[in-house]
Amino acid sequence: MKKSLLTRLTIYFIALALLPLLLFGLISASQTYNTQAAQALTGQSEVAKRVAEQVNSFMQLRENEMYLLADAGNLSSLSLDQQESLLNGLFANQSVYEELTLTNSRGRETIYLSRTKIIETKDLVSRAGSDEFEQPKNSGKTYYSSVSFDEATGEPYIIVSIPLFNLQNGNLSNVLIARVHFKSVWNIMALADATGNGIVYMTDADDFVVAHANPSVVLQKKRAVLPPQNSFATGLDGNTAAIAVETLTLSEQTFYIVAEQPATQALSLAISTIALTLGAMLVAIVIAGVLGTYAARQITTPIGKLAQAASLISEGDFSQTADVQSQDEIGRLAVAFNKMTQQLRDLIANLEARVAVRTQALSSVAEVSTAASSILETDKLLQQVVDLAKERFNFYHSHIYLLNEAGDALALAAGAGEPGRQMVAKGHAIPLNREQSLVARAARERRGVTVNDVTQAPDFLPNPLLPETRSELAVPMIVGDKVLGVFDVQSEVVGRFTEADINVQTALASQVAVAVQNARQYDQTQSALAQSEKLFQASRRLTQSESLQGLVASAVEALGITDIDRVVLGGLDYGAAGELESMTIIANWSKNPDLQATAVGTHYPQAVLSSISLFTSSKPLFFNDMWNDERVDETTKALAKRVNYRMIAALPLFLGSRQNALLLFEGAQPHAFTSDEIRLFNALAPQLATVLENRRQFERAQKEAAREAALNLINQKIQSATTVEAVLQIAARELGHALGAPMTVAQLSVKDKN
């Protein structure tokens, strides 16, 4: 059910009341959201920075303790007992150290202190090659490892190692390696002053959580998805949170301190503001509905009376008039309504005459369309259309332009009367981009255009053969989304064409376009049938050819191109040893009408072999004029000129996925390959490839049969021999004969058993 005017006006009043409130609420909620979001991210960033500073201070303190121990006691210059005593002091005073190891300059452990293991001198090993020794040794700086977990206790730890140098010569004397409890960092996370229900945790460079207030999160090896910058994103628990990340770098290791706060808590004020706005809007809807209904009734009541009078008029009672009771907008509407009623009376009076004219025009369209659809010759079809259109519509002139293959010009294809025939004979054409042309404009804009006074039109092109033209109408001939041409009609009367004429002629042009396309498709079908017959006959000749020379002759004859000077059939095959064997057949065409092909083996001129290599590809290549083709480089052009060929058609022949041969056509004169010739080339290729492969298989089978027969004969003669000497003589004689060797020696060696 359509909404009444009363309903719509009420809705409009409600909308007008709500829009300011809604706009204010949206702005307020947006500002509140943006402010609170920024504050939340700032707060989390400050938390992350503080925790990062605490973790950095913790690790820096461990590093400083180790350096202070080494520097204060000049550790590298002490005896082994003194070094162990000094390290025991640090080990006893700081419980964060799980292990302390001192190595010499070659990485050999000299002291190993552990809280969980009893280490004897025989248990000391070399740390050479390990990161904790090699990196401080080579860089001269403190080394930090990634966070690891003890396999036995599950406790996290990090290794810190520092280099110690001899103060006298500056050479490395020792490396002090400490295994530090990382659980203290967990405590920093647990004691962090996170906002609300927020959490703070630490990840390594691979985003695995290595420190968290809840140890189970770390032990689960949970991986965090950190945003590229501080923002609201998916938190560690899978819910949206305000996330801030602070980078902590310890030597070569990079860690990230992450502070999170649930989004629902971080944006609580913004959520409250949105709820308050929605409540205010509900109250405003009720108030606006009451006031809107009252105001709308003041407008719709007089309009309803006017609608009742309009309903009676729509039923045919044109005596009805609207009562004018006021001077406001509704009163003026009633006056305009009465004028419209009078115009309807006048319109109906002459409607039948206009319908008769339109019916006659549509009848003429149907007649011309019927005549066009029955003709399959394009030229005859177009001439019939322009002649009938001129006669049936009483035009001064009519003609049809067709878009050329390049799509850049409209060529006159048919014109009515003697002027039209003269223009067609002269090859009259209009460039598609010509601004001062009504015909070109209709094709470009793909719509009917008209000029009802050509003397005032800047884009009208006068024609001396049509001096009486005063108005012109041009409509595009379109099939689907393709413009085929333009149907142009002219009149000797100023103001002859109306919008209705544009519609009628557009309908006629569409019918003519379909007829033209059908005629073209018919021509293409006939051409395809002729080409199929030609291909069938060519295939028969190919299969009946008894030699490769005959194949070449049949292929050239099937293509029917008379300006071929030379034909090259390059056969490619792989020998028994895997080497590429080549066979080439050359046939002179224009110089030898009998097409006496010559097999020249692998001695074909190097220039032509280069051209064969150049044009060997997976697809046929056609060059109308190699000397002036942009696809051909200068070296190849010079080669083509030296062997005197310009036209090239290279046709690779495949059987399956393997290229068997290449058929190369060369001509000394340029040749414009037509679409039919190219299609025939492509269709002939698999036929020729199949015949070549069959011929090759047959020849190979013959050779195999001859070889087997020779071996059987030799075997029979050898078996008929009665002595060893006879066997050797027969074998030498027969093998020499089979191999073509001038002398063959067979020798029997007797091995000395002693």
Could you explain the architecture of this structure?
Strands 1, 2, 3, 4, 5 and 6 form a six-stranded antiparallel beta sheet that branches. Strands 14-13-12-17-16-15 form a six-stranded antiparallel beta sheet. It folds into three domains: 43-266, PAS domain (Beta-Lactamase); 357-525, Beta-Lactamase (2-Layer Sandwich), CATH 3.30.450.40; 545-701, GAF domain (Beta-Lactamase), CATH 3.30.450. 28% of the residues are buried. 49% of the residues lie in helices and 20% in strands. It has 17 helices and 23 strands. The chain is an alpha+beta fold.
Quick recap:
It is built from 17 helices and 23 strands. With 754 residues, the protein is α+β, with helices and mostly antiparallel strands. It has three domains: 43-266, 2-Layer Sandwich (Beta-Lactamase), CATH 3.30.450; 357-525, GAF domain (Beta-Lactamase, 2-Layer Sandwich), CATH 3.30.450.40; 545-701, 2-Layer Sandwich (Beta-Lactamase).
